[in-house]
């Protein structure tokens, strides 16, 4: 109980929260003080972003004289509704890494920031907020005051988003920051709407829409989430206290008006029968041949319903073969109604309540009416039973409400011509989508695209630039429309167009006719679909960025979940409005999920703010934040329970670099990111390793050190081209590894293999530099060791080279810690401060002479032998013997290997130590046919190298022999059991893969027994 309480009270963010940055905003950091002994991310990361920004490093140039190659990305504008989550952080990390990498390669880089007004999401959040805090609705405010209220929200949370991006180290060109509802973007939207209309692609029409009763607005097809329901399932629907059954089909009878019988139909939405205007049968169905054209009597409203024949709608073998037709509430029925000129009777109002057409059920909520209709059908003896029925239920992605197909006048964009161009661009290779398996999805959606409903019944958004000419009715109580709406860029242009109409001009002149702007706003994706050319100045082609050729941009990088929402629309809009692609490459990263593979969801309590990972966050603060949101109280309780289990001690401080590196390490193409905060924490420990290694290295340089060329000779006769030859094997090896890392990272990034690039740079720093080279070179750098000064000088120059190259190599992934350490290295070399972010990226070309396969093979032999020594020590020299330095003997079957080991005994000894164990007392390479002393532990490092570690007099050899003999008995038992199984008469019938697996196991047991026998013999 006490331990749990201590965890709950832990405050992992205290140090970061209380830290006061001593560097004035925008100024360069002072390095007057010595390096801290440990890495503290809040101290290291403070101040750098301000200096980078103030120095103008983030700004792109549109100067015509700037001849650098261009690289540009448009940041997917996050919704203004709140703060960034880890999915946004992944997008930001990938894009900033690519921008920094290209900037270091000499590119003129533009990264455009922006925030999306997020029409539905923002209006919903603010409406909930004022309802919760003030008990008011938007209608209590009125349109203009409510829009002002939302704008206040934008100012508050839009600034938080930019703060988060800066804290992540995003090198965005803030001078080009946009908001999708700022004045230039509003002009772009108006222009696009008018041009689409002039092209004949945009029109107003009455069609079935996806209606969300909670929003009181239409939404587009791709804003509908579908839930597959296999059997009867009760679901919570917003606005209802009781759950509603789905996955059921109910049957009922319509009686013929002449009393001659009945037809039985079935439906999963019984309330819609109140809008039925026909029953359809198949013209070839003999069961209903006598019914064609007969009339049915509606049981609840004064309406006669015809029996019609329709081969497209009806499948004879399904159900009863008779289908109720509700043209105003079902897409297939709507088409049938068009074919047969049926009445389109709407039975629902905008709130999802039954209207006057529903007869006795008028005023009832739609799903309450479902229960009422079923009950009344039973009362009238018309119910014919029910059955479970698999179905797909459409839900609003914003509210979770059940979508109702509803006839509404809306504005639509005919996407077919634009979609054709978008698919051709991919098929011809003009537009490249990565990973390429997403192309199938691209083609499937665009080849079957539907018209885009772009109007929304909201107040927050770009108001549709269309005006309706209206005049007062005779009684003066209302207004009536006079013809079609006038599409124009502004009211003045609309009036000028109206005056050209002879029927409207006199009324406009006299004031009898007035123009009223459409009340609806445009779909949010309409304005963001104009990216990136809208932020670059379109439709003004003389804008500096448009003239400089920044359109099209280079790359779009985003999550695959908005391939349709945003990417496809950007491509379609750009091709239609500018006759150019908006970008030439699309890189789609995976979705960020929690470590259990669950989608990030507020109700699950697994949505994490990047700043909480960067700075650390108390559990109590995490829980309190849930109370401040708009979640249902039941969802709050569930989310609190989940967070308490996941973060019992709060979220540890990881820092921006560790978060970025961790997110990038997850980016295997096409795979979802199952994010574990503990793994992010391990990358903070990597930062500490980097810090400690650099700190150790810097202490090995004398005052006044200045870099100079590496001491080597060039072997022009090497088989793979000119090769640098160094006196020190360790120096030559680490330079080969550095070159290999530089070449690998560059190649992986060019192929967008980000996780592989991360792995390459991590292996260099952690395994090659820290764990191997620094250990190997410690004897050389130790002033107490009798080492020639030329060797020390060479080692220092190699150290400097590794730091100078390695920090630049790592910078795009971890900008803060690399900048801090890079400045320390420049200070050591007496160089003026210049940012790592504008230093040349080491792509491996200039270091090609360091590549040396022979050196790598020789060093690998040393590493293998050293690992064998450490393995013996960790097995036998534990506890009280941990600090004992044993004598080591090495037997080699190859003369070249023996010569190598003799020459590199100091390096081998350094590599054979560990953080807790000193180097061996001595390492002797045994002459041929010479046996080691008795009392040694044996391990075979390779087929021709055996390592003997002398234990006699230190370890109880009898006890060790007994332990090994016990292990022999155990392994022999496993082997005997397996041999017995393989000798079974039926074993021959076992699957081939099983027999192969057993053969491998048997060989493994034999090898273990042989090794144990050798070890026992040596100890005896």
What's the total number of strands? 36
Shape: globular
Number of separate helices: 32
Biggest β-sheet: count, sense, barrel? Answer: 7 strands, mixed
Provide the low-confidence segments as ranges: none
Distance linking N and C termini: 53 Å
| Radius of gyration computed on alpha carbons | 37 Å
Estimate percent helicity: 40-55%
Mean pLDDT across every amino acid position = 91
Q: Which structural class should the secondary elements be placed in?
A: alpha+beta
Strand content: 15-25%
Characterize this entry briefly.
By secondary structure, the chain is α+β, with helices and mostly antiparallel strands. The protein is 42% helix and 16% strand. Helix 23 packs parallel to helix 25 (754-781).
Detailed description of the structure:
- The chain is an alpha+beta fold.
- The protein contains 32 helices and 36 strands.
- Strand 31 (about 715) and strand 32 form a beta hairpin.
- The longest helix has 28 residues, at about 755-780.
Key traits:
36 strands, globular, alpha+beta, single chain, seven-stranded mixed β-sheet, four-stranded antiparallel β-sheet, 42% helix, 1020 residues, 32 helices
